Amino acid sequence: MRLIHRAGPCENGPCPNVFDTDEGDLVAIQGTELVDAAALAQLSLMPKDETVVLVPRKLLEDYIRKMEAEATQ
Q: What are the backbone dihedrals phi and psi of residue 24, each rounded to the nearest 5 degrees, phi first?
């Protein structure tokens, strides 16, 4: 899988980032893993091969803004 950095303060560091992938419509999100048991219990239907990460809302807004700008070019 190839990752293309799209949003976030560091392309490959310890900060939250968003990457497009070369696998269809999949997007990779780098963030802090959600480990709060009470919050995870609310996701009872989540498959075992999935996880949840926490990222700042601004990161996703930046990603959307960049994708919209690219679409209009």
A: 65, -130
